[in-house]
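Q: Here's a chain of 77 amino acids. Please give me its 3D structure as tokens.
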Amino acid sequence: MEPQPITQEQGMRKKQIIYLWAAAFLFTAACTHKVQVEPIHITVDINIRVDKALDDFFSDLDATEPAAEPLTAPKKR
């Protein structure tokens, strides 16, 4: 059996398929995105003087208030 010769229509069809695959490859290669995640630095400012003043203000209230007894569940009989 001899191979059959390729007709002009079959040759055009092969070229169309090759061009279609090349276009699809170029399209997908152009649509790739690189995502870069960078760390976020957050600075928290704490006003220590105000914190100390509030501790001093409420310390006398804490000293005069009796300690509360812990709550416990009633015993089962």
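Q: Can you summarize the key feature?
A: The chain has one domain: 10-63.
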